[in-house]
Amino acid sequence: MQLKDEIRLEKPATLTTAPIRAAWRLLPAWLRGLIRTMRPSQWTKNLFVFIPILFDRQLGQFDALMRVSAAFALYCLMSSAVYVLNDIVDIERDRLHPKKRHRPIPSGQLPMPIALFAAISLPIFTLVVAFLVSVPLALVLIAYYAKDLAYSFYLKNVVILDVVTVASGFIMRVVAGVVVINVTNFSPWLYVVVGALALFLAIGKRRQELLMLAGAAQEVRTTYKDYNLQLLDDMLRMVTNATLISYTLYTFEARTNLTGSLMLLSVPFALYGMFRYLYLIHVKGEGSAPDELLFKDKPLLITTILFLLVVSALIYLPPWLDRIR
Each residue of 223-247: b (16+ CB within 10 Å) or e? Predict the structure, then answer.
């Protein structure tokens, strides 16, 4: 059976993608497998480290931007180390999963010795560089990696704590963005918003996996014996309300260049984005990870872009524009 990356590369190549596909085929199979296991497509999650610099009105400061960009790069490496470790630990369960069995480690594309070397060397290299950039950032990365070790070997098998642990990782990303710059306008409400949103996405993913895996759910993840659709739907409703309420409360105290409570204008975009995600999982039966859905569903992607544009405009437009209100 051919692997996913090889199947995708057999599609007709365009003038734009042909050189990339050709270069990809030239790489050794194990290297292609290692890159796939590092999950570059999921590095979008690490964009959460940019939340502090965006909402703190420092996006135009070159030094701060470089420091946050470095934190983003280091988080990508550390999260990749975690993905490699998870795939090593979950190899037998992944072989039972209809999609995950095609991953490089359970399929055999990435040999176990190379996977083990990557799982050990990546976090060491990341932490050495992190200490050179910022000691607080290195400490956050250590906490993040320790959290994921606990998740990989124990917490992912504990009902409710598994999704809480996943959500805490997103809050840590925000903390990483905070510790590398001198924040002045960053509201603690944003920690609540990010935590609630991460829970919303994690619970939504659990719900769809439970439906997709059906009778094999418990073999793939032991916590599924303690979950059912009613519980997950109730949890989803709670965190949906918490996310929207906490973000709305944040907009009242948000400091922008345009004074007043104009940040409320961004609430409808947040509301529609969450409703769209619920529509995709409840009506369309989408089971993809949230970051994959973001790029697959055009309305969701457009809403996210519009939300970021509105927020950026309110925060960064010149103050004199306030006079036209």
Answer: bbeebeeebbeebbeebbebbbebb
pTM of the full structure:
0.83
Which residue is it, tokens 């306008």? 185
pLDDT tens digits for 28-57?
888 888 888 898 888 888 999 999 999 888
d(CA 36, CA 41): 9
Amino acid code (one letter) for 96: L
Examine the pLDDT at 103 and tell me if it is beyond 60.
yes
36 found inside a domain: no
**Same domain? 164 vs 200:** no
Number of separate domains in the chain: 2
Shared domain for 124 and 156, answered yes or no, is yes
Q: Is the model's pLDDT at 14 over the cut of 50?
A: no
